[in-house]
Amino acid sequence: MNICVIGGGYVGLITSVVFSKMGNKVICVEKNIEKIKKLNKGIPTIFEEGLNELLNKSLNSKSILFTDNLKEGVNKSDVIFIAVGTPSTKDGNVDMSQITNVINEISSFINEYKVIVNKSTVPVGSQKYVKKLLIENGVNPKNFDVVSNPEFLREGKAIYDFLHGDRIVIGHDSEKAKDIIKKLYEPFKIVTIFTTPETAELIKYASNAFLSTKISFINEIANLCNKVGADIDTISYALGLDKRISPQFLKPGIGFGGSCFPKDTIGLVKIGERYGSDFKIVKSAIKVNEYQRILPVKVLLDEYKDIKGKIISILGLTFKSETDDIRESPSLYIIEELLKKGAVIKAYDPMASNEIKKLFPDIQYFDNLYDTLLDSSSMIICTDWKEFSNIDLEVVKKKMKNPFIIDGRNVLDIKKVEKNNINYYSIGKGYIK
Ligand code: NAD
Fold it and tell me: Residues marked as binding for substrate?
């Protein structure tokens, strides 16, 4: 099939390379010229396992093109995926402006039948909104159908997830469009749910809100563990053995971040408000997360009372490992709070220092984990990068002054910490003094 993907970010780029791998011709339309130049040269614009190889294969076989030429993309394609951003507005509602702009931009190019697919995460009613907008813009209703096809990929495992996801959700109100999208996804051999657009749109929010709630729940249990001397790992393991609960998303830490969970939880609360539904559970999950993501700062204040002038090392700036995405990363909130309290910050991340420099230009960044630690009083592990779990604690002791480690992702081996006699705080696994 001939496919156009509008938006070449995390979702659009993965959608493009995977559909091209599956034998389709893909035109990915992106408005950022720098991204287009890099991608056409085979240089990935995001860090994602397997992307480099897949991108270059697609370019070599000429089954993918990156361009800013929307007219060409729309004219040459049967199916048009919209994968632009839907960030939160200041009050937590979903900002639909990028979607609206895309629809306004493509309207004059739709002269024959196209299936327009909302892959972006959009509120209930968005499929109807897009249809209405196209008609208001003068597009003949016979020339299009709009389908909702939310994306569930995880950053860091995006290509794998796109190819082997747990389910594909297609919300449609047209058998013609359904058949086309069904054919497109058939080779993936993934359970596919065909439903109404409203149901599809809500499935995405329900999934992300549920997973976020699970994380906040285990974090509350973990915080209690620290107070009563219980062990969160054993609790998570025991909980996860119950098939009704499942072991996924039971790892405690300093909360969820990224471009989806924070915005989609508040997004669902706002959608609920619009229809008179008060999402008390999701609101609480958000509140717990707001507490959890700056928990290390509270722990530091308990320890030192005053942290003005203290040198604190922040290890890990991305919201999780295996990605370069810093959006809504807990480390951003921690750095902000520490700076307010007058701490001196040294930061290290194997992937994302350049991005975070734009937000905090005045803190010190390092290319090497151990150089970062020199003369620091405390280290906060914010991301579960593998190199942090392998850290040599003997070197840590030499580099730092009386080290206090706050392990925000529970990556260190407690036995090694005990052996090295290090002051250590973990999320629900113990407080070693
Ligand atoms: P992103 O910000 O990485 O990418 C969006 C891209 O769209 C940017 O490159 C931007 O330049 C481009 N763009 C915006 N307007 C454009 C236009 N008019 N024409 C061409 N290009 C345009 O965002 P993302 O993380 O890929 O997320 C996209 C959507 O997918 C969001 O709704 C998000 O909630 C959803 N989603 C994201 C993930 C994830 O893990 N990132 C997972 C599932 C769903």
Answer: 152-155, 204, 249-253, 257, 320
